[in-house]
Every structure is written in C-alpha cells, then in structure tokens.
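Model: You mentioned two targets. I'll fold them one after the other.
Researcher: Yes, keep them separate.
Model: Target one:
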Amino acid sequence: MTTSLTGTLALRENDHTTYTLEFERSAGVAWHQPVPAGWVGGRRLSVVLPAHNVAYCLPKVLDALRAQAYGRGFEVIVIDDASTDATAEIIATHPAVTAGLRLRTRCGAATARNLGTYIAQGETVLYADADMLLPPSTVADLAARATDHAVLTGFRHNLPPDTSWPDNGPELTADHRVTWRPPVNTPLLYSGITLREPVVGRPLEHTRDFRDLGHGRMYYDWDLPRMVVTALLAVPRAVVLDVGGFDAEFGRIGWGMEDTYLGACLIAAGLLVIPLRQAVGLHLDPPDAAQQWQRKLSTWPATLARYRALLSEPARSGRRAALTTAMNSLLHSCEVLR
C-alpha cells in the first residue's frame, strides 16, 4: 500500500542539531550570528522574485539586493506575473537584475517561482517576495549555510504603508512564527481548533527552533510544513525540481498554501527545516494592504482544501522531466525583459 504524504511526514524527524553544530565548527561562526562582511564561502545562489504590480517598492528591494555584503556573485531572477504597472520597466532597467521575464497572462506566484527556479543557475535558490527588503548580510548568511539537505527559513517584519524604517532594523519578534497572538473563541484558519483562553505563543522558541515539530507534530495551529514561508527561504534547487516545484493549481485557485505544500514535499524528501534568526527581511506592505488581505482570505478555504487533498496522496518525486516540459512551453510565450 502506498503511503500518503501525511504518513511520510510522520516518519520524518527535524533534529538539526548535528547540522548546525557542524557548520559552527567548520565556519567558526555561531548558527544565529551573521557571517563577516565580504564572506565568500557557501554555494552558488540564485535569488528568485515573483513580481506582480510592485512598482511601488521593487526599486528599493533591488537596491537592497545590489548592496548585499556577500563577497561572491549571485544572480537575481525576477519573473513579472503580468503586471499592469511599471514593474516590467523596472525589471528591464535595474542593474541588480540578472534575468527578467514577463508572463503575458497572470499565472500566480507558484508558476512564477517555478519558472525562475527552472532558469536558475545556482545550486541553491533563495526565494524572496518582491516586497521584501533584505538587510546587507542576509544573502551571505543563507548561502553560507546552504546544502542539499536543508530548507533554510528566514523571517519577516511587516511595515505598514508610510511607516519609517525601524530604528533597530527589522525585528525577529514581529514574525508570527516567533510571537503569535491567536484569536479566542474563533476556529483557527489552519488546524480548525478553537482556543478558549488568550495565548501568547512562541512557536520558534517553544519548538526549539522547529526541532520538536518533527514526526508530524503540532504546536497549536502550527506544524513543520507551515514554517516553510517563501517570503524568505533558501532551498536546494535540485530537490525542488525533483518534487515538481510548486503546485501551480494553488495560484489558479487563490492565495496561500503553495509554500506550505512545497515544504511538505521537501520534508518528505528528507530535508530538515532550519531557521536563521538573524535573517529578517522588512516586508513593505502596499498602500491597499487591508483590502488585499481581505481578498486573500476569501480564497483561503479553497487553497486549504486543495492542500488537505494533496496530503492524502503520495509524496511527490521524480517530477523533474514533467516540470521541464511545462517550463519550456511557458518560456516560449514569455517576454524577455533582461
């Protein structure tokens, strides 16, 4: 009998202690400390940004990538998901961009990331949102720790429109995976459980940097796949291709869950999910952030239902050829911006 993805996840532990200690021994740098400026170690890395109507912030995001204090070159790939503002023009002219493509019809972030991953040359793909401003050491910190066996997750600090840069830079505690205040007497979105008393959760701390989320365990509304967030995430490209990349159907349905499902597939493939507390980006909310959030939430039930259905299927593997065929076809219809 074929094991479901849920069954496979129950077999996977997430004790990354040996992994992190080996890095500290070999590099002489603590796991949660930035590497020195100009660091040249680590793997070849490709940054992939899916972009849709982000002209309001994309120049700042690309400026920050160009200013990274990493002594080794890395490519920046931006996929314009059929934007209707000046996003394409920015991609075509900004010096930080190595490669830029424009999808002629909107396909969703999952497809955009798949296309970026397919054309990437790096051994590691660093996914970031096109509205995430990265501090100077972020790329080096992730590249230095990347291997074929780890999913490295950073964090985000949401900055509302017209708000100045925080005095001390992005704060780790601003991420919901670090400080979590769920609603009371309301079913939680992911697990469906209802909390009757107020909770101030510390998912990162209370799960010992996600180690205690192995074997399919939960922390209230959180499990290990849900800790995999593509706002800032470094993954081995070869494994992403083998599992078939992101499931593009999520993008057609609506918002959410495509990164959680990719995380489940990567965990099932034997990868460890390891946080970097020093890797915190500043998420630049759009002017209509409240309205966009409500539109996203309206599609959540459909994307969650698809995710639950996929959990009952076997873990994906051996899908590189199918992804290659799909991406080659998509490339022929793209506009080359850079």
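Model: Target two:
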Amino acid sequence: MSVGGAEAWCAAIEAAIAGNRPGDIEPEALARVLQTAVRAYAFKTEKAGHYLDPYEKGSVTATETVMAATAVIRAADLNLWDVAMWFNRAGSAPGRDDRGR
C-alpha cells in the first residue's frame, strides 16, 4: 500500500469513527492492517535496536490502547503472566533503558 493509500484508508476509518458508523469498517481489512502494522512495528523496532513510539502521544486513549493490546495478546495466545515476564526480562527486546526509551 502506498503512503497515499494508507492515508486514504486512515481517513475513511477516522470518518467512520467520527460518524459512529462501525459497519463502515470491514473486519477483514482491519485485521489485515493490524496484523501488518504489528509485524512492521516489530521489524522496525528490532532493526532500530530500541523501541519506537507506536503513535503520537495523546492520539490514542488509554482505553483504546488497552483494548487493542488485549486483543493482540489474546490473538497471540498469551496471558498477562507471559507478557509480564517479557516486559520485565532484561534484554528481551531492544532498548536504551528499562522502558525501551
């Protein structure tokens, strides 16, 4: 997808959210975009050697973040104990300090 294509898709999704039209968001397309975004984020983070900001601070609410993170954790068949081990394990992922910043 070109940057222009990504921008168009994002604009359409933002319009669906603003208009309270969840039916305008195709579940298959959303799953594909999220899958690819997660893979791209992991790839770029690994190659950069440190965690990258996943989005602009304040652009996503805490509730939205937790809802998405929970869905991703469940889709990977993980539980919070697994995540806590990964989160707190030294050297488990790239990072410049304990929080990857």
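Researcher: Noted. Anything on target two?
Model: Residues 49-101 form one domain.
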